[in-house]
Amino acid sequence: MFEGQVALVTGGTRGIGAAITTMLAKSGVRVAAGYSRGQDAAETLQKKLEAEGGAVSIHQGRVDAPDDCARVVTEVMDRFGRVDYLINNAGITLDKTVRKMTHDDWQNVLNVNLFGAFCMTKSVLEHMIERGSGRIVNISSVIGETGNVGQANYAASKAGLFGLTKSLALEMARRGITVNTVAPGFIATEMVGKIPQAALDAVVEKIPLHRLGRPEEVARVVRFLLEDDSGYITGAVYTVNGGLDM
Ligand SMILES: NC(=O)c1ccc[n+]([C@@H]2O[C@H](COP(=O)([O-])OP(=O)(O)OC[C@H]3O[C@@H](n4cnc5c(N)ncnc54)[C@H](OP(=O)(O)O)[C@@H]3O)[C@@H](O)[C@H]2O)c1
C-alpha cells in the first residue's frame, strides 16, 4: 500500500518519532527522519532500519529555523524525489509554573512545537499542492486539551496545533491534502522520563488504563491516517491516551 511513498518525520530518530520512522519504514515507506542534536541516535536508527531492508535518510536541522526546514526538504527531494507525508513530531518541554517561567522558556517551547510545525509545513506545502496530494499529521498532546501545572508554554503550543491543523485542513481540502492531529497522552519516552517518579506515579494513577502508552501505539495511529483508505479524514484529532481525557 505504501510502496514508493515518502514520509518526512521531524524528530524522527528518538522516542515517538523513532517509532513512527520504524513503523513506516517497515511498511515500505521511504522515510526521511529529521533530528536536531542527536546525531548518534539518528545514525544508529538509520543503520538498524537499513540493515532490515528499509530506505531511511537522516537530516539535521532545527524545525524552528526556516532556512533549516527549506534545506532539509531540498535534501529529501534530492534523495527521494517527493514528499507524500509530513509528520510534525519534533517537540520539547521546559516545565515551570507561570510565576517561574521566563520569556525565553515560553518562546523556546512555542518556537519548536508550534512555529516549527508551521515552518516545516510551509517548506513542503507547495510541493504537495503541485502534486495534488499529501498527508500532514501534527503530533499534539492531551495537555493541549487539559492544560497542566508547570506546562503553560507546552499546553499553549499543543493547543495551537489544533488550530493550525483545522485551519490548514480547511485551506487544503480542495487540494487533495489532508491535515490531522494525533494527541498522545503520557508515552514512555525520554520526554516523560524527565518527570519525577512520584509525579509520574500520580499521573499513572489517573489514567483509566493504568499505564503509560508505548511509542508504537502512537505510531500505529499515524500510519492509519496515512493509509489510502483514510483519505476522507481531515481536520480530526485522534487521541491515544489510555482514556485520560474522559
Ligand atoms: N512522550 C509523551 O508522553 C508525549 C505525549 C504527548 C505528546 N508528545 C509529543 O510527541 C512528540 C515526540 O515526543 P517524544 O516524547 O518522542 O520526545 P523526545 O523523545 O524528547 O524526542 C523529541 C524529538 O524532537 C527533536 N527535536 C527537539 N527539538 C528540535 C528542534 N528544534 N528541531 C528539530 N528537532 C527537534 C529531537 O531531536 P534530537 O534527538 O536531535 O534532540 C527528538 O528527535 C513531541 O512533539 C511531544 O510533545 C509526547
Question: How is this structure best summarized?
Answer:
The protein is α/β, with parallel strands linked by helices and 246 residues long.
Structure notes:
With 246 residues, the chain is of the alpha/beta class. The chain has a single domain (6-239), classed as Rossmann fold (3-Layer(aba) Sandwich), CATH 3.40.50.720. It contains nine helices and seven strands; from the N terminus they run E-H-E-H-E-H-E-H-E-H-H-E-H-H-H-E. The protein has helices at 15-26, 39-51, 66-80, 103-131, 143-146, 152-172, 190-193, 197-206, 215-226; strands at 6-9, 30-35, 56-60, 85-88, 134-139, 177-184, 237-240. The chain has a seven-stranded parallel sheet with strand order 3-2-1-4-5-6-7, sandwiched between helices. Helix 1 crosses helix 9 (215-226), helix 3 runs parallel beside helix 4 and helix 4 (103-131) packs parallel to helix 6 (152-172). The chain starts with 5 loop residues before the first strand and ends in a 6-residue tail after the last strand. The relative contact order is 0.14. The model has no long low-confidence stretch (mean pLDDT 97). NADP nicotinamide-adenine-dinucleotide phosphate binds next to helix 1, strand 2 and helix 7.
